Amino acid sequence: MAVVASAPGKVLMTGGYLILERPNAGLVLSTNARFYAIVKPLYDELKSDSWAWAWTDVKLTSPQMARETTYKMSLKHLLLQCTASSDSRNPFVEYALQYSVAAAYANFDSDKKDVLHKLLLKGLDITILGSNDFYSYRKQIEALGLPLSPESLATLTPFTSITLNTEESNGETSKPEVAKTGLGSSAAMTTAVVAALLNYLGVVNLSSLSEDQDQDMTGTADLDVVHAISQTAHCIAQGKVGSGFDISSAVYGSQRYVRFSPEVLSSAQGAYEGKPLEEVISEVLKGKWNHERTKFLLPPLMTLLLGEPGTGGSSTPSMVGAVKKWQKSDPQRSRDIWTKLSNANSALEKQLNLLRKLAAEHADAYQCVINSCSIRKTEEWMEQATEPRQVEIVKALLESRGSMLEIRNHMRLMGEAAGIPIEPVSQTQLLDATMNTEGVLLAGVPGAGGFDAVFAVTLGDASSTNLTKAWSSHNVLAMLVREDPRGVNLESNDPRAREITSAFSAVHVE
Fold first, then answer.
1. Global pTM?
2. What are its GO biological-process terms (predicted)?
3. Regarding beta strands 477-478 and 3-14, do their DSSP bridges make them parallel or antiparallel, or are they unpaired?
């Protein structure tokens, strides 16, 4: 029986760069853009020859990139041997596979290990699929002569083939192989693969996670296993221990996040120093994962929008490296900027939490304010407040905007000092125009910044439509991405079949 798991992409609203160091926090929103992993047996029956009992076959398919990679996997050492060209190897999936199987061996007694061994001898057939939102399809839309609009994006077939970057680029901010939008495809993919494998192998049972699960941060023992294995695979695959917010949001959903101490992965970093992988992963699972995560959502009647400026994305690792280099060379100024940036991040978080509180306690006043402000420029917002409670709500909205402007200013200063385009001039012009649009509360460059998609938070439905049109006039493609607070999830079937059925039903209804 096939197991299908999905994990969301993310938008880091606050905490860019600071989130690399404890105890700095970041606000990360998970989205409706999801990566899917489908795991099923490669063969109907076990192989009978004795050689096969020591090895099993693995097939990894990525239909969107027209790639298929086959491996032999040692069931003793859990090492992978690629049986074809290594050009199409995916280290994130490879480590996700090795560590998930190691977790099964580490958790099972001898009887369960026998069952696991026989299951593995049927081979593993793994397929990975990413929502279109993870990738740039501007060129395809332009080639079709369609306008740069969400409606044009919606006409694309789900899981459309991905166009590779062919432009020459040099320097530390070189474009990645695939034109991405900055939603964290590698983290979502790694998490989806780990969740599907761990569920398929019987290490965890994710069937209790409903599609409308409330992001309660308690009672998540199985998710904690998915998190630990996903973080380990992702960090080892990228060659460094990152902050981990992208994996955490892929597993648990939208949250306020403080990173784990990197030491928890020291055993995994030395995994090939003679210790069996099964023992290494056992240590990882028993390690002190001291990350902090608390529930965080946008206040009601607010919408997350992303706009793709069409510049092909940025290399986050090289930008992070440049900031770290600057910190060492100018510790005094870097501390000053980081302190101010941290204060601005905290101020925005405080105002957004206040707005959620006001929405819960004074729903009518809150809705009235949001509706009024959604069709007006910022300078007109206070004029619409006719009673004290409405004034309090508008003040919180304006304080939020002020904090966002401070965040952007300090991010720009950091980029200039480090010699990297955290908020490039083109993005500054776009964000200024965005924040001057009626009903727009916030706008910024998510995460590490650069040339990825920008984000905006709008008030009510009318302002989302206004911003989509405004972006189009600036040659910016408004994406279909929205906030979705859910984390990792088990799906009932192959997402391609579901999408085709949905499309057929929509046509039939019309």
1. 0.92
2. farnesyl diphosphate biosynthetic process, mevalonate pathway; isopentenyl diphosphate biosynthetic process, mevalonate pathway; steroid biosynthetic process
3. unpaired
